[in-house]
Amino acid sequence: MSNLLKYNTTCSFKILILHFESSHGQWAAIVPPKISAVQGSCVVIPCSYTYPKRASKENLNRWIGFWKKKATIISTNLPKWKLPTKYRKRTLFLGNLQTHNCTMMLDGVRRTDTGPFYFRIELPQYGRSYSYTKNDVTIDVMCECLPSLSVQVRDKITASCSVSHSCPSYPPQFIWSHPGIVTLRSKKLNMWEWETVSTVTLKPLPIDFNKNLTCTVKYRGGKQARNSVSVYNQNITPILQLYILK
Question: Can you give the residue range of the structural domain that contains 113?
């Protein structure tokens, strides 16, 4: 006989429309139009691009990429480029432009980091450049993102705590209030959204009943969210809590 509870408070990241302009071989970019991110954490904006084929068969050996907000450059693959103070050391160009990857990471997400942002490519050998302004990206900055918790009670307690996020470079960390055997797994849900799940298995002692089993999720930047259940002789009751670590 088991007692199973699932309490789903996972934040919604699902925007199932991608921005793209045209077919392969044209000026085209594929980016999500909107991504959710937890304030203070980080967000990875996935991006791929194409450009028209050249008449010349000479291979390109230089690609210059910029991410911009209006006229302001916020990220680039040029290592010596001096970015504005508000973006300096907060953005990282992750993509390899030679392989048509223009992915960027924004760290320490602020409430003002809503965008829209767009990508620009410059090809000096080609003598061409292009701004993908029709393919801009906005960020939905969230103050909180509570985890989802499911618990199964038999002779042992098995609890799984999961959260969706948009920063695979720095996934959330999980802390359990009770010791046990802990496993961690992550999977990619779509182009920009990931799910990380922590599962703990423990054999409760009599003193463990009437106490909370708590999963704490710690995001990059310090924000934490908690989801708890109280175990009363194999009955479970959910308790939710969110706080910011100072």
Answer: 28-141
Residue 17 included in any domain: no
Q: What is the pLDDT of residues 38-75, one digit of tens each?
A: 999 999 999 999 988 776 666 667 899 999 999 999 99
pLDDT, one tens digit per residue, over 196-215 is: 999 999 887 777 667 788 99
Q: Is residue 237 part of a domain?
A: yes
Predicted TM-score (pTM) of the model is 0.79
Last residue of a domain, one of 108, 141, 174: 141
Q: What is the 3-state secondary structure (H, E, C) of the chain?
A: CCEEEEECCCCCCCCCCCECCCCCCCCEEEECCEEEEECCCCEEECCEEECCCCCCCCCCCCCEEEEEECCEEEEECCCCCCCCCCCCCCEEECCCHHHCECCEEECCCCCCCCCCEEEEEEECCCCEEEECHHHCEEEEEECCCCCEEEEEECCCEEEEEEEEECCCCCCCEEEECCCCEEEEEEEECCCCCEEEEEEEEECCCHHHCCEEEEEEEECCCCEEEEEEEEEECCEEEEEEEEEECC
Q: Does residue 232 share a domain with residue 180?
A: yes
CATH of the domain at 155: 2.60.40.10
Report the number of distinct structural domains present in the chain.
Answer: 2
